[in-house]
UniProtKB/TrEMBL annotation:
InterPro entries per UniProt: HARBI1-like, HARBI1_animal, HARBI1_dom
Subcellular location: Cytoplasm; Nucleus
GO molecular function: hydrolase activity; metal ion binding; nuclease activity
Protein name: Putative nuclease HARBI1
Region (Disordered): 310-329
Cellular component terms (Gene Ontology): cytoplasm; nucleus
Keywords for this protein: Cytoplasm, Hydrolase, Metal-binding, Nuclease, Nucleus
Location of the DDE Tnp4 domain: 149-301
Required co-factors: a divalent metal cation
Function, in words: Transposase-derived protein that may have nuclease activity. Does not have transposase activity.
Transmembrane segments: none
Keyword Secreted tagged: no
Family membership: Belongs to the HARBI1 family.
Length: 349
């Protein structure tokens, strides 16, 4: 009898039981519109738009278990972008595993990177360039400006390979990110691939944007940059040692107009804390960090297009990653004639 009893118990233990799935709440179902913007930075219609856009890429065609809905995947990734919180914290908030948070963030980041050209682009047609010039002119009467360029540093963890290249002048590991924006704080160009030790002028000189100006794809208009960039026919920088009233007026007007790009980076980092020093450090490889930066710039431009406000307490955002002070030293200063002509004609009164 004892042998029969043990055999029956073994058969009972081998019976397959139905898996019990914990109910996962979707924040879209219970948060109001203001809370969604406050916690996830995007509005409900924008999130639903992204769900439709990435449905094919993010839908999990599996019958093995309950797959995460696309909307929940987007909310998980947006929560990371907005706060920069640890994966375990994000997992607890959404009641999923830490591994799932990692996979979801990677996949959503890749989806956003794949559509970056749709949301980040430098216009070349005359009508769009004229609109840019007018908007910049309205700031401080500086003519012919089609963009403001600057660099910012995004703190990352110490890389396993070529660690020394990522140490910037402030002695922490970072990526040097170059951006060009319009007067509405929307990014027209972003370059996120250079280590923190890279000079701003090097990042610009080796960019596709520089080629567009040099090859004549953009034939009219100036960029405004700080003294870390070379003075070129298409890139105007401040006068280093102004000696006349005209030079001082030019510098003041130049600074008021160019500060749009510093405000753009400030708004970007205030909206998406994952790339701001207040959230700590991006704990990923440099390649993954570059992808995340591009992803949040895409989301930033979407927020600008849809007039999404900044979270409360961020009325005057500042770019904490602008370490400045890198004056350009080189021979490419063939824009001196153009700058001198502009100062004499426009700022002589």
């Amino acid at each position: 009898m004892a042998a029969v009893y043990v055999h029956v118990r073994r058969r009972e233990n081998n019976i397959r039981r139905n898996r019990v799935f914990r109910d996962r709440d979707n924040p879209l179902d219970y948060l109001d519109d203001d809370d969604i913007v406050r916690r996830y930075r995007l509005s409900r219609p924008m999130i639903l738009e992204l769900c439709g856009m990435f449905q094919n890429q993010l839908a999990r065609p599996t019958k093995r278990s309950h797959a995460f809905p696309v909307s929940l995947q987007l909310m998980v990734a947006l929560r990371f972008y907005a706060t920069g919180s640890f994966q375990l914290v994000n997992a607890d908030v959404h009641r999923i595993s830490r591994a799932s948070v990692s996979t979801i963030t990677r996949d959503v980041t890749q989806c956003l990177k794949n559509v970056c050209n749709q949301y980040i682009s430098m216009p070349t047609d005359p009508a769009s360039l004229q609109a840019l010039k007018q908007c910049f002119y309205d700031i401080s009467n500086f003519p012919n400006v089609i963009g403001a360029v600057n660099g910012t540093h995004v703190r990352i963890k110490s890389p396993a390979v070529d660690e020394h290249l990522y140490v910037n002048r402030k002695n922490y590991h970072s990526l040097n990110v170059m951006g060009v924006c319009d007067s509405n704080l929307k990014f027209l160009n972003i370059v996120a691939k250079w280590p923190g030790s890279t000079h701003d002028s090097f990042a610009l000189r080796n960019s596709r944007l520089c080629e567009m100006f040099e090859d004549g794809d953009i034939r009219d208009g100036w960029l405004l940059g700080d003294s870390g960039y070379p003075l070129r026919p298409w890139l105007l920088t401040p006068v280093i040692n102004p000696t006349t009233r005209q030079d001082q007026r030019y510098n003041a007007c130049h600074m008021r107009t160019r500060c749009a790009v510093e405000r753009s980076f400030g708004v970007l980092k205030s909206r998406f804390r994952c790339i701001d020093t207040t959230a700590g450090t991006l704990l990923y490889s440099p390649v993954r960090c570059c992808d995340i930066i591009v992803a949040v710039v895409v989301l930033h431009n979407m927020c600008i297009n849809n007039r999404i406000p900044l979270p409360p307490g961020n009325d005057n955002p500042r770019d904490q990653g602008n370490i400045g002070g890198q004056q350009y030293v080189g021979n490419q200063n063939d824009g001196a004639v153009i700058r001198t002509r502009l100062i004499n004609n426009r700022f002589n009164n």
